[in-house]
Amino acid sequence: MSMLTIEDAWARLDAACAPLPAASLPLVSALGRVTAVPVHAACDLPPFDQSGVDGYALSVAGIRDWPARLPLGGTIAAGTLAAVPALDAGTAARIYTGGMIPQGADAVVAQEWVEREGESLVVARPVPVGQDIRRRGEELCAGTLMIGRGERLNAGRIAMLAAAGIDRVRVHAAPRVRVLVCGDEIVPAGRTLRLGEVYDANGPLIASWLRRNGYPDPEIEAVPDREAVVSEALRRAFDSADLVLSAGGVSVGDRDLIVPEAERLGAERLFWRVAQKPGKPVYAARHGRALLIGLPGNPGSVLVNLAVFVARVLGCLEAEADHAAALQVGFLLAAAAGDPQRDTWLRVRRRIGEDGSLGLEPLPRQNSHMISNLSVADALAWLPRSAEQFPVGTRVRCLSLRL
Ligand SMILES: Nc1nc2c(c(=O)[nH]1)N[C@H]1C(S)=C(S)[C@@H](COP(=O)(O)OP(=O)(O)OC[C@H]3O[C@@H](n4cnc5c(N)ncnc54)[C@H](O)[C@@H]3O)O[C@H]1N2
Ligand code: MOO
C-alpha cells in the first residue's frame, strides 16, 4: 500500500491551506493569534526624557567645583501632567524614577550618592553629563517596525506593542475546529466501563492540546460507527469548521467510516497513510473551505499527529510566517530501535546536560495504544527509517509535543 513521506505530506497540507480572513482586535484579545499586517510603534520610547532613578536632577555643565552645594527647587514625580518648570541655574530638583527631566537639567544623581543639608544638596563627586537620563526615543522612534506580519502574539509581544501605544492589532481569525470522537466502544470517564468499552482519551487530549496551544475550545461530538451518523456529523462539521479533526475510524476495517463517508460527501483526498510509526493511517482531505485531518484512533497516534500535522495546518491557516514544524537537534541518551519501512516518532523526555546539550531520553511503553509515559514525555525524537539500531549518542531531530 502506498505511503507518503512525512515531508511530502507536509507539502500537500501547505499547498491546500488558504489563510483565514483577518480582523482588528483589541490588543489583549489577540493573545495567541497571528499578525496579518506589520505593526509599527505609535510613539517614541521613551516618550520623553525621563529620570532612571529616584534622586535629583541637576545641571552638571555649570558646576566647576566639587563637592557642589546646590539649593533645592521643586519636586518632579512620574506622571505629573502640568508642565515641569525649568531648572534654575545652579539649583537641583527632587525627581522620581520616570519623572520628566526639566529644561536646563543634564543629569540625575541617585539619592544614595548625595547628602541633604537643610534645603541644599551636597554632591561630593563629579557627575557625568547624561547620567541616569533615559532619552526620548533612545529605544525606538514612532513608526519603527516592531513586528512583521505572520508573527504569533505571545505575552511579551503584547506587552511590547502596548508600551508603544498600540491598542488594536489586525490578526487572522482563530481556526474554528470541530472534533469528532469516533467509536462505539468509547465512553467518557466517570461512567462504569462495560465489557468491550474504553474510556475516551482522544477527546480530552485534543481539547486540552488545542487550549494549551492558544486555540478556542473546539466543538466535540461523540460519533458512533454508523454510516449515516458519521456522514451527518462530517457534513455538519464541514459546514461549520475551518478544520475538522476526527479521531478513530480511518484504518481499513469495515467499520472505519471516515474516509468513505468524507469522500461520498465530496471531500478531495490530500493523502491517506504516511510512512511514520505510529500514526500511519492518518488521512487528510479538503471539503470546500474546510480541511479534514482523520487521526488514527490509537491515542499515541493522535498525539503524534497533533504535533506533526495538526500544529502545522493550524499555523498555515493563520498564515504564520514560520509555521513549519519547529525541529531541534539532540542526541539519544539510550539506544533506540527504528523501523525499516517507516520513520519512527519516539516519545522522549528532553534533558539539558550541564554543557547545555540537548539529551533525548527514550521512554518505555511506546506502543500507540499506550500513553502512560506522557507523565514525563515532552518531545518526539524523529528516527529515520532504518533496519539498524540507533546507538547511544546518535544525533537526531526532535519535535516538541506542545503539551
Ligand atoms: N489490518 C490493519 N489494521 C490496522 C492497521 C492496518 O494498517 N491494517 N493499522 C493500525 C493502526 S497503525 C492504527 S493507529 C489503527 C487506527 O485505526 P482507526 O483510526 O480505525 O482507529 P480505531 O480502530 O477506531 O481505534 C484504534 C484503537 O484506538 C482505540 N481508541 C479509539 N478512539 C479512542 C479514544 N477516543 N480514546 C481511547 N482509545 C481510543 C480503539 O478502541 C482501538 O483500540 O488501526 C490499526 N489497525
Ligand atoms: O499508526 Mo498506529 O498509530 O502505529 O498504531
Automatic annotation (TrEMBL):
Q: Sorted alphabetically, which InterPro entries does this protein's record hold?
A: MoaB/Mog-like_dom_sf, MoaB/Mog_dom, MoeA-like, MoeA_C_domain_IV, MoeA_C_domain_IV_sf, MoeA_linker/N, MoeA_linker/N_sf
> Any signal peptide, and if so, which residues?
none
* Keyword Methyltransferase annotated: no
| GO MF terms, alphabetically ordered | metal ion binding; molybdopterin molybdotransferase activity
Which intervals hold domain MoaB/Mog? 178-316
Q: In which pathway does it act?
A: Cofactor biosynthesis; molybdopterin biosynthesis
Q: Which UniProt keywords apply?
A: Magnesium, Metal-binding, Molybdenum, Molybdenum cofactor biosynthesis, Transferase
Give the UniProt record's GO annotations in the biological process aspect: Mo-molybdopterin cofactor biosynthetic process
Swiss-Prot/TrEMBL catalytic activity: adenylyl-molybdopterin + molybdate = Mo-molybdopterin + AMP + H(+)
Known EC number(s)?
A: 2.10.1.1
Q: Name one GO cellular component term.
A: cytosol
Matching entries from Pfam families are given as: MoCF_biosynth, MoeA_C, MoeA_N
Identify the cofactor(s). Answer: Mg(2+)
Q: Which PANTHER family match?
A: GEPHYRIN (PTHR10192:SF5), MOLYBDOPTERIN BIOSYNTHESIS PROTEIN (PTHR10192)
- Could you tell me what this protein does? Catalyzes the insertion of molybdate into adenylated molybdopterin with the concomitant release of AMP.
What's the family? Answer: Belongs to the MoeA family.
What's this protein's name? Molybdopterin molybdenumtransferase
Q: Organism source for this protein?
A: Sinimarinibacterium flocculans
- Lineage of the source organism? Bacteria, Pseudomonadati, Pseudomonadota, Gammaproteobacteria, Nevskiales
